[in-house]
Fold this protein.
Amino acid sequence: MGSMIYGNTFNSILEDILKLTCIQYVMDIVGPELSEPANTISSFKLAGLLESAIRSFNPQYDDRDILDRLRVKMMAHNTGDRGWDVFPFDYEATVPLNTVFTESVMGRYLRMFNFLWKLRRVEHALIGAWKTMKLNSVASHFFNKLQNAVRLQLVMTSRKCQVLWDDMNHFVMNLQYYIMFEVLEVSWSKFLNEMEVAKDLDDLLAVHEIYLHSIIEKSLLGERSQTLYKTLFVLFDLILRLRSHADRLYEGIHEFQAKTTDSSRDKSKSRLHPNDKTSKPGSWVSEGRKALTQRAIAFLRNIEQDLDAIGKEYSSLLEGFISQLPVQKDIDLKFLLFRLDFTEFYSRMHPKT
């Protein structure tokens, strides 16, 4: 009976916390605040935004007891850190649950939740980038009127951005699948089965420790996986940089589109008023369009060069990340290798891997 009561409580608490770290809607709400410098963010304001987001997203979290236990606990931050870098979820366990959920245990859960939060953050960034890059973001009538040089450069830069996005999305989606299903789902199912046969509190503590150790090690958070862990977060940073460059690229395209439209209107106006000095050759209308075209080409080339640099660093790091998976001691990490390279794409590119 005791194990059944604890089991139901475990099921409620652990699933609630793990699901909270997966809510994209929460990120939409708190994202703007977390983009600010960490030392300027109010924990009270974040807590209010979080509660509002949870209530708006799913009525099952309207349980007052769950909301009262959920905390926003800002981690220690360094100069230059943003809210994203120091924002984790915390869950307060009271008597009698604190017998199992000790401060040390909750510290390990906090590491897991922080990792899931960062994984969801890069997924959120990729979704935002895709919305920015969607095919109808550049009007066809505008594209057809572009000079050949600008059009060609636009196609090359946009395609480079989309190909890099596709590579990164493939990595993040498969990593996320591995964590959520091969790690959390499988470990949780095994833990529930072992908990059912637990005879007393000592047995329960033992199987819980095995469960917690399992998800930590398989999620690359263990001591033996620190090299992989560090590489993984550099890859995450590169994905966030892609999001930033995608935003810059398409904001620049839209700005160029607006200025080109204004220039075309001025040109039409000059035909109606041939005596207008601004319509003569060498005036600001003709020179402005030429200068605008040159600036557009220069802007697109700069973005392309930045994307090349990001892509080169990303490919190098990803190759190193994948090459380390087969030599890991935890056999479950081979599932991650299979997920990432199920088509043998990376194996054919790098036969030595």
Q: What stands out?
A: Residues 148-196 form the longest helix (49 residues). The radius of gyration is 26 Å. Confidence is low (pLDDT under 50) at residues 1-14, 16-22, 277-287.
